[in-house]
Amino acid sequence: GAGVSQSPSNKVTEKGKDVELRCDPISGHTALYWYRQSLGQGLEFLIYFQGNSAPDKSGLPSDRFSAERTGGSVSTLTIQRTQQEDSAVYLCASSGVAGGSYEQYFGPGTRLTVT
Amino acid sequence: KNQVEQSPQSLIILEGKNCTLQCNYTVSPFSNLRWYKQDTGRGPVSLTIMTFSENTKSNGRYTATLDADTKQSSLHITASQLSDSASYICVVSENTGGFKTIFGAGTRLFVKA
């Protein structure tokens, strides 16, 4: 079956531009997560969606970062006025049940490079 | 502060040899611990998941152990293969009724012929 997909796979943008990253979770999964992975670093939690509940945005590093999840499925992570320190791989994961007790299935990630 | 620390940061072994990766955590209250394998350019893939009451779990040539008292886990890889070259990430979840998952920085394993 189809796994988590993300697009684009690679994105190069100029400093100051806005970017949108897309995540298609596994069909039927109610929970969706965004993470950021900088070179040689661990995954950094950004935001978590669970059903119709208000998202947990506690990991977003600044107000330049925002995310939406439309119709409980596809999610878009938006970074406004990108900075060079935003360069990283952005990973999306989905799971079938809320919380950390159930396995998260990861997408291949979007590699963002800000020049 | 809840943390997950992994060692070594990187490791080089010869094909066919065994190796053990370590994970220490301070996450509390503890829910579960997972080991993920992340190939270069790919998302992490789950290898094992253990709850508080489990001491060991195997998945093929991968065996994970958990000591909840000392808050330590290890991932043992037997008879390594070239395809084992990847990053291995230890992930610990809190048991607070909500979501909180802390990722270690990973151990980068290189298996050489």
Q: Secondary structure elements and their pairing?
A:
The complex is a heterodimer of chains A (115) and B (113).
Chain A: E1 5-7, E2 10-13, E3 19-24, E4 31-37, E5 43-50, E6 65-69, E7 75-79, E8 88-95, E9 105-106, E10 110-114
Parallel strand pairs in A: 2-10
Antiparallel strand pairs in A: 1-3, 3-7, 4-5, 4-8, 6-7, 8-9, 8-10
Chain B: E1 4-7, E2 10-14, E3 19-25, E4 30-38, E5 45-51, E6 56-59, E7 62-67, E8 72-77, E9 86-94, E10 101-103, E11 107-112
Mind explaining what this structure looks like?
- The complex is a heterodimer of chains A (115) and B (113).
- Chain A has 115 residues and is mainly β.
- Chain A is built from no helices and 10 strands.
- In chain A, a hairpin with a 5-residue loop joins strand 6 (65-69) and strand 7 (75-79).
- The model of chain A has no long low-confidence stretch (mean pLDDT 89).
- In chain A, strands 2, 4, 5, 8, 9 and 10 form a 6-stranded mixed β-sheet that branches. Chain A has a 4-stranded antiparallel β-sheet with strand order 1-3-7-6, with no helix packed on it.
- With 113 residues, chain B is mostly beta strands.
- Chain B has strands at 4-7, 10-14, 19-25, 30-38, 45-51, 56-59, 62-67, 72-77, 86-94, 101-103, 107-112.
- In chain B, strands 2, 4, 5, 9, 10 and 11 form a 6-stranded mixed β-sheet that branches. Chain B has a 5-stranded antiparallel β-sheet with strand order 1-3-8-7-6, with no helix packed on it.
- In chain B, a hairpin with a 4-residue loop joins strand 7 (62-67) and strand 8 (72-77).
- Chain B is globular and about 45 Å long.
- Classes of the chains: A mainly beta (115), B mainly beta (113).
